[in-house]
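Lab notebook, design round three. We kept the backbone fixed and only want residue identities now. Task for the bench partner: fill in a sequence for the structure below.
Input structure tokens:
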């Protein structure tokens, strides 16, 4: 899979993750950037766990969304507003 494909899937995953996290995201731009990073993290994490969602667009999108949601959750742990 090419880098352009990873970026496009990551952008879509960032959008979905921001929607899933409802109010816990960081705005559309940061969510999209976290989605790109989440695509890489999701692929790595599910690979370690031995979960294979397939090579198609749906499997890639689900994997990237899982990674993006996880990344937004982790960033929220360290970004507590007082």
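Proposed sequence:
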């Amino acid at each position: 899979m090419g880098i352009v494909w990873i970026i496009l899937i990551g952008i879509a995953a960032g959008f979905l993750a921001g929607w899933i996290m409802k109010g816990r995201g960081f705005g559309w731009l940061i969510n999209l950037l976290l989605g790109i990073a989440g695509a890489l993290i999701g692929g790595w994490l599910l690979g370690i766990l031995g979960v294979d969602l397939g090579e198609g667009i749906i499997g890639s999108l689900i994997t990237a969304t899982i990674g993006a949601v996880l990344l937004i959750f982790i960033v929220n742990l360290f970004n507590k507003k007082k």
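Keep this in mind before ordering anything: The two ends are 42 Å apart (CA to CA).
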